[in-house]
Amino acid sequence: MTGWVAIAGLGPGDEALVTPEVRAALDAATDVIGYIPYVARIAPRPGLALHPTDNRVELERATHALDLAAAGHRVVVVSSGDPGVFAMAAAVFEALEKWPDPDAHDIRVLPGITAMLAAAARLGAPLGHDFCAINLSDNLKPWALVERRLRLAAQAGFAMAFYNPRSRNRPHQFSRALDILREECGPECLISFARAVSTPDEALKTVTLAEAEPDMADMRTVVIVGTAATRRVGRYLYTPRSSG
Ligand code: SAH
What is the C-alpha separation between 239 and 182, in angstroms, rounded? Predict the structure, then answer.
């Protein structure tokens, strides 16, 4: 097999945040596979086939990538941010389980800058101490588990980053998440809404949990919740490295 699959992260939006490694893979590719808006970020060129697909077909997309590579194609599977964070890398490995000889494939995962790190950098250093990332979507897990994880993470004193915080299909869940956070962290804890970081639509807002409203988040927002120690210094926000 001379084909390969590179599972690449395109970063949060700005072309300056695409790594040289990902750029090189895209330059060498014969095929690019991914969700429509991510494939739209790839400049067309002769010899490159673009395969944009809808959002909910991750396993089909992953199988398609492996099939093309087995036929000798050089395939880049694109995700936004990092491909290992709520994105395509795990889907490709899940599809790989169906192959008799997984190691016959040449698969590389090329990291990218994930939304929470791009957002944290814009804000200052809110993730300067221990933190966790939680996907608030209940597409792939029950909502009860989301609630349990965010309650326990809050009790454990983690700063938190929430991906997929809110969508039109489930408007009440983020409101419920805010209620749980207010119970566990108290009204003065700081929460940041970082929307479309590193794109022309970027918007950042930090408020207390008491002031937080569900409609401050949408699906282009990553939400960062600080710990009891997270504080402002001038226009920056940070969590001291020595916090408990
Ligand atoms: N693999 C991606 C995450 C995909 S899940 C990554 O590593 O960033 C999609 C979620 O990521 C969105 O709902 C939003 O919460 C977050 N996200 C992606 N790009 C973003 C950006 N530029 N600004 C803010 N949040 C973003």
Answer: 19
Residues 6+ apart with CB under 8 A from 18: 10, 11, 112
pTM equals 0.96
Select from 11, 12, 43 the least CA-distant residue to 26. 43
Ligand 1 pocket, residues with Cβ under 6 angstroms: 12-13, 79-82, 85-87, 114-115, 119, 163-165, 194-199, 219-222
User: Which token pair is 102?
Assistant: 């997984």
Torsion angle of C-alpha atoms 92, 95, 96, 97, degrees rounded to 10: 130
pLDDT value for 85: 98
Q: Which two tokens stand for residue 139?
A: 């597409």
pLDDT greater than 70 at residue 244: no
Query: pLDDT tens digit string along 77-101?
Result: 999 999 999 999 999 999 999 999 9
> Is residue 202 within 8 Å of 168, Cβ to Cβ?
no
pLDDT digits (tens, 9 = 90+) for 166-198: 877 777 899 999 999 999 999 999 999 999 999
Domains of the chain, first to last? 4-113 (3.40.1010.10), 116-238 (3.30.950.10)
